[in-house]
Amino acid sequence: MSLDLIRKNINRAIADNFLSDLGMNQNDFNNGQVVFLAAFLSAELPSGIVAWSLISASQAALSNKAGFFITRALQGLAQGGFLPDQILYLSYWYTGKELNTRLSWFYTVLGLSQIIGTLLAAGFIELRGLNGLAGWRYLFEFEELINGVGDMNNREGLTPLAVVKALGEKDLWPVYLFGLVVFIPYSPPQTYLSLILKQLGYSTLKANLLAIPSQFFFALNTIPYTWLSAKLNERSFLASLSNVWNLAFLIPLYLLKKSSSHHYNWIRYGLIIALTSVPYCHPFLIGWVSQNSQSVRNRAVSLFLYNMSVQVGSILSTRVYTNGDKPYYRKGNLALISLAAVSIVLCWLVKLYYIQRNKQKRRTWDGLSADEQLQYKLTTKDQGAKRLDVFFVH
What we know:
By secondary structure, the protein is an all-alpha fold. The protein has helices at 2-13, 18-21, 26-42, 49-58, 65-79, 82-91, 96-125, 135-147, 160-167, 173-181, 187-191, 193-199, 204-209, 212-232, 236-255, 262-276, 282-293, 296-317, 330-366, 370-379, and strands at residues 47-48, 152-153.
């Protein structure tokens, strides 16, 4: 919860004239998000709750664009690697199916942290003008006090050799590719929800409070969606439904008349809330990677690489909603529609790939005699997904 509260508080601060106070526009904010995500992606240094809380608090003293970029980079370095570590730790204790359920609770808590963060922001931002300070400065400072209690959480980085070996596991690349694009279609509306509402004429307080239904339903959808995946033993098809959901609301959002009237603003708000309440497939995709890795050594690096692909997708998503496209973001929404359609097709292609790979491995395995199969099990140097007697889930 501490991680996500600190990581996403910037999304709530932008509703309080954060950009104009620092002399920035939305493109500058996008660039700052790229800096943060690139640092988050590359971080293999020891990091902890204390570090990211102090950096978050330092944002209260921001006065220009350069300071914004620097704190974004430091925040990414401090937080990078935390999520893969926690997921790997959980995978030591639970089977692949059990892991899905635990991760659904984990990400539900992250979703609930956004509701808490929004309520905190609604209060702190109303302090704008107190002692001559902007409300977003109080938001950053006081959230540090809430999150700053904790021990350092050091960890050992992955070796380059381990990463190179994992990159050779070609059968896991389809899931990495999927992680790259599957979350982009809803990410920009979710990131900029409060800012979009502010641009449509809502007050800072209303813009933050009106985001809560999205955060609530997003968290609520995670557990049953992951449970359904485990119940049906199905991953790729269910993951495609997330982007079917996205298309159902992105298309009417794109087609909606460009009008700032009260009527159209509420329709636009309803579509964005529904879009960003998308059933979240990330928990069972992580379980999917874990199960197909088959070994602890492979799992550690494959989870790292999967997280890398998701973070690269997050970097790409920052380029979709631009300053020249506001407040209706027609060009951006058209791009998101295209990416959602690509993601749906990719889901089915990934499933087809694993079906064919299982058939190939089954033919090879069944072609061995019982003695040859036993000898293989006793002497093979194949590990993880490369073993002939190990098959892929999909």
